[in-house]
Write a structure and sequence with these properties.
This protein is an alpha+beta fold and about 180 residues long. It is built from three helices and nine strands. The chain is about 25% helix and about 25% strand. The protein has a five-stranded mixed β-sheet with strand order 5-6-7-8-9, with helices on one face. The protein has a four-stranded mixed β-sheet with strand order 3-2-1-4, covered by helices on one side. The longest helix is centred in the N-terminal third of the chain and has 22 residues.
Length: about 180
């Protein structure tokens, strides 16, 4: 009888140790991750949100200010996911710093790849979506340069060596 109680006691201690040291620390805690909208498809009340990863999220409320840049699509793609050039644009727009978002009007896929247009008409040429965060930093640095007051384009294909030119468009005014 004593042996049985000792065996049961050791078994209980062993199960408790396994729970506390192996199971309890790796248990799953519930969490909700709400996607962040990077762009829109459509306009007005028909507009739907698109995430930086290309998911179309029609239930996600759109921010009133600042308005999100618009993708050049008339309606949402079948299956609720972007692909190809539209996905590249979503990746680029998803990497934009919050301070620059109010100055963006939309994007399109041009001859040089992803192009983003500012509200004042300046064309930001990204090429592909690789190094999007670094490319946005290069754009921000150029737009913040006090010696530059007007230009037509900023080319950040190579973010370490951005190029710019023209003088037809003034820099966007602060919101």
């Amino acid at each position: 009888m004593r042996r049985r109680l000792l065996t049961i006691g050791l078994l209980v201690v062993g199960v408790a140790a396994v729970y506390f040291f192996l199971i309890r620390d790796t248990s799953v805690a519930p969490s909700v991750v709400v996607p962040e909208a990077a762009a829109t498809i459509g306009s007005g009340e028909d507009a739907v949100a698109v995430t930086a990863k290309g998911a179309v999220v029609p239930w996600l409320p759109l921010p009133e200010e600042p308005e999100l840049p618009q993708l050049p699509l008339a309606e949402s793609p079948q299956g609720g996911r972007l692909a190809g050039p539209m996905l590249e644009q979503a990746h680029v727009l998803g990497a934009v710093p919050a301070t620059l978002r109010p100055y963006l009007a939309g994007s399109y896929y041009g001859e040089s790849g992803v192009d983003v247009e500012t509200t004042s008409g300046i064309e930001l040429r990204f090429g592909d979506a690789s190094q999007a965060a670094q490319k946005w930093k290069a754009v921000a640095a150029l737009l913040a340069d006090p010696e530059i007051t007007a230009l037509d384009y900023v080319d950040v294909h190579a973010p370490g060596h951005p190029a710019y030119g023209g003088s037809g468009h003034e820099l966007p005014t602060a919101p």
